[in-house]
Amino acid sequence: MIDTDTALLRCQDLVALAQRMGADAADAVARANASESVSMRLGALEEVERSESEEIGLRVFVGKRSASIHTSDFAPEGLKALAERAVQMARHAPEDRHAGLAPAETQLSGDLPDLELADTHRSDPEALREAALAVEEAARSVAGVTNSNGGSASASRSVAALATSTGFARGYAGSGFSLSASVIAGEGGAMQTDHASRSARFLADLVSPEEVGREAGQRAVARLNPVSMPSRKLPIVFEPRIAGGLVGHLLGAMSAPAIARKASFLLDREEEPLFDSAVRILEEPLRKRGMRSRPFDGEGVACCPRALVEGGKLTGWLTNVSSADQLGLSLTGHASRGSGGSPGVSASNVHMEKGTVSPQELMADIEDGLYVTSLFGQGVNGVTGDYSRGATGFRIRKGEITEPVAEITIAGNLLEMFRALTPADDLEMIRSINVPTLRIDGMTVAGE
């Protein structure tokens, strides 16, 4: 796999080639990834996989016409052909008065912040095999577990680089380590399955295989013999593992491109209190060892910590160059970029601040409710905020989590759900979106 310096040099070469071919402006992004993973099933080696990928993409502008193209061919001849094709394509593209590069004064300058994204540790296949075996064995050792879908361990390294014709040229490297297990409990038609996984930038920050395995096994066994429940409006409590999805829907609706298309349920709600005034949602792109940390965005704009929701209200939309120009807004450092295509928008290391009560206290006054541990289906309308998902979890009776439930649907509207949301105090910073246990009153449960 290429290193950061090589990736950056290729990007700079490609931008220079495009300008020599007639482009008025250009940017190039390179991404490389190398990963190894080992999977075990029933104590036997099931799969060893190693993959490497390297791609470079070029976006060129001829006036207000633009085109993008990408390749995995880093040879000088291949890059020259790529630049020539991109400029030819741009000359025949429709004009887009909002398209362009980020101004140089908005792009990151000075030294890159040390975000500690790249671990120097290298896991060999034998170490990954031992970890995969340990995570599966821990899961299978839980009483009630009857079969296994497998345990796995993986390690990866990545490189990202961006160069623009405005003079920006930066790159950085990262690493990742993960463990996962999926097992089955019960027999025949009563079987239930569940999983657990953890990821970290540094191996030293990853929890033990035994902890991940035990969680997978315990979750599967806890789901045995589920029942349905009557249809009615109830308080619903979301466990942290899935509660982050609600914030994910919020981030999608805060995307300036969605606002510009008038395709967001948050349209014209900038000044409204969406949450209780105590709710704060923060973004920390510069968090050391963060799963989504980055020093600059997909257009070279410096990333900065910010509050996304303050006092229960939005603080603004998440922009890239095109959407900022359409809406007359400033750049916020949220452009996202693959190796091809125009930039999108994404946030980095988002979390909702913890509340003031424990999960037990949050549920204490619930006479009848639902504790949701799994969601499925894609029933979320980003334009209206209507929310309907299949769910499994546990019945809450008199403040206690009791029998498992399945074959139910939960429904509401995200605007109403946000206003009724109360967070617990069990926030853990282990994911890209971190949220404590959440309680939302008044949602509809459709069951038997």
Automatic annotation (TrEMBL):
Domain of life: Bacteria
InterPro entries associated with the record: Metalloprtase-TldD/E_C, Metalloprtase-TldD/E_cen_dom, Metalloprtase-TldD/E_N, PmbA, TldD/PmbA_N, TldD/PmbA_sf
Domain Metalloprotease TldD/E central: 124-224
Domain Metalloprotease TldD/E C-terminal: 232-447
Gene3D superfamilies assigned: PmbA/TldD superfamily
Residue ranges annotated for the Metalloprotease TldD/E N-terminal domain, each copy included: 26-90
Pfam families: PmbA_TldD_1st (PF01523), PmbA_TldD_2nd (PF19290), PmbA_TldD_3rd (PF19289)
Family stated for the protein in its record: Belongs to the peptidase U62 family.
Name of the protein this chain belongs to: TldD/PmbA family protein
